[in-house]
Prior knowledge:
five-stranded mixed beta sheet
Amino acid sequence: MDRRHAIYEWFRINRFKVDLTATVILLLLFGPVYLLAGRPFLFVLSCGLLLPLAWRRTRPVPAAAVVVLVCLVQWAAGAEPVAGQIAVPLIIYATAAYGPVWASRTVLLLGILGGVMLTTREYAGSAESGILGLTIGALYTVLIWMLVLVSWTLGDLTRVRRLQLQALEDRTRRLEIEQQQERQLAAADERSHIAREMHDIVAHSLSVIITQADGARYAAAAKPELATEALATIAATGRDSLSEMRRLLGVLRNDDDSPTRPQPRLADLDELLLGFRAATLQVAFEEQGVPRRAMPAGAELTAYRTIQEALTNVIKHGGPTAKASVTLAWQGRGLQVDVVDDGRGAAADPPAAGGGNGLRGMGERIALYDGSLSAGPEQGGGFRVSAFIPYSEA
């Protein structure tokens, strides 16, 4: 099957070579007989009709023009039909199949007109007269018209099929381009997702490590056992963060052994809160109501990261004595997440270069699920982060 397809492709690509070979064969079949019969003029006419067939698909309009011109010379000279006249239906077919629309319609009209001109000349001055002569002339005219119409119809059907195949090829090409663009967009979205994940992991872990390191430095002289505990917390946090980052960056590899992306769920909140409490942040947790149905894994990840980012900001900006509370309220439409602290808030610290990515990333995550986010200082001090995530995805 592949070999047949390769042969077909070669014939389709090398049109001129195929048509030239066929033309040479026809010339050898229908040309020399007139030279052997001592009729050179008919030899020239036959060759003049057959030669344009070599360009019938690559240059259909000039080839058709040459055939029409030779036919007019033949009619004007009163020469009899020759074997090369087989080129007429072939050129009509080729023009209808591969030429422009106006040329296709023109050769159809010329073919019909040529049939009338040929039979009129043949039978107008013949011995046949009366009704018999008219009947024979009309019969030959109808036969010529049928040959012309069949040739033109087959060519037009070939044109329609060729245009359909071309449209399918163009559509396939567009689909390939669209798929490539979709892959590029997916890769860009994956990079953005990884950047947000790494920001959450690094910001949380470094905040814990910095807090523990500061506590260990101050407690090293007075209470060495506290310093030892702080260093153990730093080591454990660093190992956990490194392991999570390795799993996260594993999605950038192409091998099948790469681990999947870490997907924390709301069930992992206890472990998250223990990490913050180990970093000396007092966190209260409350869950109200029950979920009406399960939330998508991505929505739970978004809620998890929102709480993680909000508590990380408390450690960064709330001050050493800040306390925080986390409330999960299951409502009829979705999940309400509130993280409130009594610290001094982010406004008390000067903004760092490139800061604000945490809240911006939170908003982007929540917007993917048709949720809403509000964050700002509380009256009387402190800071509140409120997010609502509906059950259904966007």
